[in-house]
Design a protein that fits this description.
Strands 8-9-4-3-10-1-11-16-2-17 form a 10-stranded mixed beta sheet, sandwiched between helices. The protein is built from 13 helices and 17 strands. The chain has a single domain, classed as 3-Layer(aba) Sandwich (Alkaline Phosphatase, subunit A), CATH 3.40.720.10. Helix 1 crosses helix 2. The chain has 387 residues and is an alpha/beta fold. Strand 8, helix 9 and strand 9 form a beta-alpha-beta unit. It is globular, with a radius of gyration of 20 Å.
Length: 387
């Protein structure tokens, strides 16, 4: 059975590459891509479809041949292994993308020896860039955490939450109210005069008001929020994660959060860095839920459309769309597309299958061929170092 599963995976990869060849022939070169690939981007947007591999994309494309993901000219395949492990978790892979370095599974922007790794958000902040994170999980989950925190265990989300006070990230959209309102830390870690510490429990959202962040914790206020000028904002709309897309209870889409984040961040004259994650693609793949998987990819793809529309109107924005790893060992077999019966799962866990990288805008030509996940972090750091 393993032999046949391997053959199916190889055939899926071959078919995907052939499909992408067809896509690329149909894409018209825009003014953004004519002679501008080598110019330095002012804005960098990294979109991570957590757990989405080639099999998942193939299945989604058959359901939606106009998928936004199919409109990219520059395409690569990416290895995702962690330090000392062929199969990565989101902490190690997120760290590789956020810092350009490998680390062990479970580590968040730390080397195995415990030393901290500087993230692209921290570097960008020093360069005067605005920074943002938009996710459908808690903002303290492994992937977003890799861009602003430094802990040796992804499971310690209270410790991760504490790092928002470093003000590395200007705009947070997602879930995680519970981690931000009852974080337990030593009293000495905060100024006593803030009056937000009781029995070692601290309300980080109240503290962030002292740093001039606007705090939004309900959907009505989120929808009505439309600042005329650039400002810092934390909008966490659920106790932990947003409801799943397939449930019908997700009150705000990734596209809607992305639109609002772009509106805010683009008001910064020095440009911005933005990480957007379709967090729950991974969870549906873990559960071998084909309908849920495709619903989450659809939610993500609509956010990709928003980002592409934003970038195509400019000549200064690099867009990178990828995944941190593959989940579920997804294969595409015979079946009925409309009934979602084309997908077969060979695992309920992460795999080491390479994931795609789609890129657009200045510097996008660098993301071709087979690359490693550290290449994204290293390339973004190279761009930022040119200031």
């Amino acid at each position: 059975m393993k032999k046949y599963a391997t053959i199916i995976t190889i055939l899926t990869l071959f078919n995907f590459l052939n499909l992408q060849f067809c896509f690329s022939k149909e894409i018209k070169t825009t003014k953004t891509e004519k002679g501008l690939e080598d110019s330095k981007p002012k804005n960098i947007i990294i979109m991570i479809a957590d757990g989405m591999g080639i099999g998942s994309i193939t299945a989604y494309y058959y359901l939606n041949t106009n998928a936004s993901i199919s409109k990219f000219k520059n395409i690569a395949l990416m290895t995702t292994h962690a330090e000392g492990a062929l199969v990565t978790d989101s902490a190690a892979s997120g760290t590789a993308i956020a810092t350009g370095f490998k680390t062990k599974n479970g580590y968040i922007s730390k080397l195995p020896d415990g030393s901290n790794l500087e993230t692209i958000m921290e570097i960008g902040k020093k360069k005067g860039k605005a920074t943002g994170i938009v996710v459908t999980s808690s903002i303290t989950h492994a992937t977003p955490a890799a861009f602003y925190s430094h802990v040796s265990s992804r499971g310690n989300e209270n410790e991760i939450a504490y790092f928002i006070t470093n003000q590395t990230i200007d705009v947070f959209f997602g879930g995680g109210i519970s981690f931000l309102t009852t974080t337990y830390i030593p009293k000495t870690s905060y100024q006593e005069e803030s009056n937000q510490i009781t029995n070692n429990s601290v309300n980080l959202l109240e503290i962030m008001k002292y740093f001039n962040y606007k705090i939004i914790t309900n959907y009505d206020e989120f929808y009505s929020y439309n600042p005329l000028n650039y400002e810092k904002v934390i909008s966490v709309l659920e106790p932990v994660h947003l409801p799943s897309a397939i449930s019908g209870n997700r009150k705000v889409s990734l596209k809607e959060m992305t639109e609002k984040a772009l509106n805010i961040l683009s008001k910064n004259p020095n440009g911005f860095l933005l990480m957007i994650e379709g967090s729950q693609i991974d969870w549906e793949a873990h559960g071998n839920n084909a309908k849920g998987l495709l619903a989450e990819i659809d939610d993500f793809d609509k956010a990709v459309e928003t980002v592409l529309n934003f970038a195509q109107k400019r000549n200064d924005t690099l867009v990178i769309v990828t995944s941190d790893h593959e989940t579920g060992g997804v294969s595409v077999i015979g079946g009925v597309i409309g009934k979602h019966s084309v997908i077969r799962f060979s695992s309920k866990d992460h795999t080491a299958i390479m994931v795609p990288v789609f890129s657009f805008g200045p510097y996008s030509e660098k993301f071709r061929g087979i690359i490693d996940n550290t290449f994204i972090g290293k390339t973004v750091i190279e761009i930022l170092s040119q200031n």
